[in-house]
Amino acid sequence: MTRISERELVLPTLMLLAQVEDGLMTSEIGRLLRALLQPSGEDLEILAGRNDDKFSQKVRNLKSHNTLTRDGLATENQGRFRITSVGRKTYEQHAFYLKEVVEFPLVDAAEVLTHMADKAPLVMLDETVREGDLRWRAQEYRTRSRELRTAAVEHYSSNGRILCEACTFEFAAAYPLVGKGYIQIHHLKPISYMRGEPLKVDEALKNLCPLCANCHQMVHKRRPPLPVGGLKAILRVAYQYKGDTP
Fold it and tell me: 7-114 sits in which CATH class?
């Protein structure tokens, strides 16, 4: 069963606090985190003698355990949390991990948050935007094996063709000049759960699945990722290509 640890709530919470000027109440943090992380399984079990679930308790523990304040990540006054300079720096330095926790790229986060239920109280801190600035970032991240990707493409190809396991989309057929041999490789067991243990290639391939970009995004709309079989069950698409596949 799925279980989100209290520690896993820290970075998403800092991301929320970084977007508001006046801070957030614990109840607001809980509502936003629930919409963002979409808890399931054990986290939705109702606590004995209460009418809320384990996920709500973990959010409350951010205050009762001083999870944010003891390391200077945020200040708290009468239940309202405000991010500190230390918290903002921590969020910026470790933002990469949010893709593994939240399961979508950070560039999508602002759009998703603005569409949350009950009109999330997010504030634009600047009325202007800048793009294209050069910045240097040092951060930890989980590596992916290029050799394994190459092996997966070869393993799942047939007669020079490789199709999306879910919807059968083929990049080479849709984009003849640039799509040949292209596909995205999905990890059935999320890479965030791995610890760099060595695996034989044939064993590692069992955890991989070829998906098109659309299907890959859709399986990661849920946490844990939606099973590929589950995605296939709700698909409503059919592809017809003009001419022969190159």
Answer: mainly alpha
